[in-house]
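Notes to self after the call with IL:
- keep both proteins in one doc
- input above output, always
- annotate only the second one for now

Protein 1:
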Amino acid sequence: MTTFTRRGCVMTGLAAVAALTLASPAPGSTTDTANTANTAKAAPRRATPVRMTLPAPTGPYQVGVTSLHLVDRARRDPWVAARPYRELMVSVRYPARAAGGHPRAPQMLPGEAAAFEDWSNFSADIPKGLADWGATLAHAHLDAPVARHSGRGFPVLIYSPGAADPRSLGSTLADELASRGYAVVSVDHTYEAPGVQFPDGRVARTRMPEEAGKAKTPAQVTELLKKLTAVRVADTRFVLDELGRSALPRPLRGALDLRAVGMFGQSGGGFTAAQAMHDDRRIKAAVNMDGVMGYTQRDDDPAHPSTVGTDGLDRPLLLMGKEGDDHHTVASWKAVWEHSSGWHRDLTLTGAAHASFTDAQSLVPQLAGQDGEGGLSRKTVEKLVGTVAPDRSVAVQRACVTAFFDRWLRGRGGKLLDGPSARFPEIRFVR
């Protein structure tokens, strides 16, 4: 999720949801196919939209991916009252034995790309028509055969995206972790993401601008943030339930080790990871990438703490923040830090911005103006993804997140998270 500013206050977690109406009008329709306006300032147009690429994974495995359509009939949809059940789409990435004959998966399906173009967290900064969101390919191959595994299967990692972001914006890190022997389950939070495309072609469009528009008072904003987090945690727990109920296609059954589950996410997804671990003992370790963990409109405001803040955690937590975000400056991080008995670390990625912890780190710089053609200014690029070199930012995140889960889900050694490393001078350990 990108960073918004309101009345001089920088907001980087779920708090940015309260500012969504500044970026775009509400969809204005209760149907799944409502259209929204893009409000980015006009910029010189390129002759054709930019086609972007994502960095390839570096692990020893090729990567396969399949999608699951999960239906929770025990829960009404919390965002659309007329729907008597909750539907989710998730992607499962896994180590593959071979990828020949299996095409690379699109980062976004056509309906998701169209919805993202119409409205997203980037709408105020990226002009409509500049990017070809539907052209980017992930490095996971559709339904490739699963690699051989031990009797326990591959450790499982749940990925939750930033508030109002699609699961596809975490493709780079998900592909990397799968290439290193993990099964990565990425969750779209329906009616929160810009668009979620189901197997029958339906596209559930976001309701977040409309919901934010209803929150007229600080108390209502707080309640919206609480609801959004509660929905996300409930989605996560349902997905874990379904994975244990043979929701997987036959080739993947027995390939996932549900006794070794971790979770990671950016922004609101990082908060979701920490809160879900607090609420569900099945989650053994979590990574929060620049996500505020309280129900507040200001990062430095300790009001309205979450239970993960008041109780802390007794299992491992890795905090990764942009420049300026750490447990000394973000009140909710301070609360979790002081109340946690489990292993915890606080790392700053120097030169990073909030969206650096998503695929935007690689994609946005490709939208910069070149050769006199229209594109994003350097100022806009740095606003969205900071000044850190994209390849270094990606390398740091891959190394740190992999090292964290290797330590706590696989029991493997390694000293990367014990202190500063000459290999990764971009990481600062916050004491």
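Protein 2 (the one to annotate):
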Amino acid sequence: MTAASESAANAPATVIHGEKISLLRVLGPAHVWALGVGIVLVGEFMGWNFAVGKGGALAALIACWTAGLLYTCVAMIDSEVTSTVAAAGGQYAQAKHIVGPLMAFNVGLFLVMAYTMLEAGNAITAGYLIQTVGGMAGFDAVQDKPFIVLTILFLAWLNYRGVYATLTFNLVITAIAFVSIVVLFLGVRPWSTAVLKPNEFLVGLPYGWLGVVASLHFGLWFYLGIEGTTQAAEEVRSPARALPLGTMLGMITLLIAATMTWYICVGLMPWEYLGQAITPLFDAARMTDSTFLMVFLFVGTIFSTLASANGCINDASRAWFSMGRDRYMPIWFGAVHPKYRTPFRSIVFLVPIALIFALGAPLDQVITFSILSGLLGYTFMPINMILFRRKWPLDTIKRGYVHPFHPLPAIVLFILCAVTYFAVFLGYGTQLVAMMVFYIVASAWFAFHRYKFVRRGDQFTMPWPRPRGY
């Protein structure tokens, strides 16, 4: 056997896109669940409550369940397309194969911005909580900014070292954070009125139905990021099983956690305070006068922010890596670490961007930037799903999962996205316009400059037949 043939025989079985060094297929359904829920669960610990300030407690509940319907449609669509297009980049890889290069470029940017802003918001929350608890303990000199920097740097290092350890860590701390919500729910005895007093604080709709629409903006924060499970498509052992199972179980987990969170907080705090709190669940635990619950929710809040930031680094770097590998961005970003098998350059490159926003922007602005980027990505998904079924009907290619009721989920998702744009415009119209201008300028840069570097034939890696009608 020659040296060349021996090298070929020993090459990894998971080589993708012709890369000599590929990402490793080591993840199972539990890791997919941990990635999706880990990114999102922090939304129960902070951010969602700004919806209360927009329209009152009841409006926040309506927004919670409406957003739950939106994200259920997202999860169903993603489960079908990603279990078939099993490549890193998630929705970016879907757009590349189904719609076209300009859409793929924009979707890739949507993903990177959504996850990087979410990472920054998590770091802000962790720093604020540590500063608050330090002040309660008499350590007034404790500042939040060093902890913000340490959080981002530590999690970037963990991602750099390998995906299996990263998402196993996420699995453990996400489970603990979810258990802390359940323990608080049981600790306030929801079957009695001894602690919770929702009748005193549930004041209807102080701003009418317009407030309900406005609250939908932050209602998305309960679930924003569950679509990140698709970023693990190239690193799971069985995409057809792990991705749908992990994603749908994640949505069930989040729907339960969101409803319990709303009930706890509304039953303990007036809506005027709840609507501007930074860490609502931790504040709720403080109001129970239970040291155990307060400590447990402190741990749960910290763990939820770490799990979310950790998953965001994983997802943003995979999207950026995929764009580099396909030359949508400089190919330098498409490198895989020879030892750890991670997209190490993409991980390192996105760290200073997250730090700039975490250290220099208010939390509600960071959350809004993340929501807007995510919302733009969700708007693409109905178009993508309809084109996918039209170009490759069910009998033409093998799918890992087929979502039911098509095209109803795509239609519902598109309508809910349109309503949410209006909700964002009501409170953050300037940011909405600024983000749209940014993406228009980026699209022009890609179309007139970067596209000439793209090798169109190298991007299409799925062994599919010619699309119907082409």
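Annotation: The CA atoms of residues 326 and 458 lie 7 Å apart. Confidence is low (pLDDT under 50) at residues 1-19.
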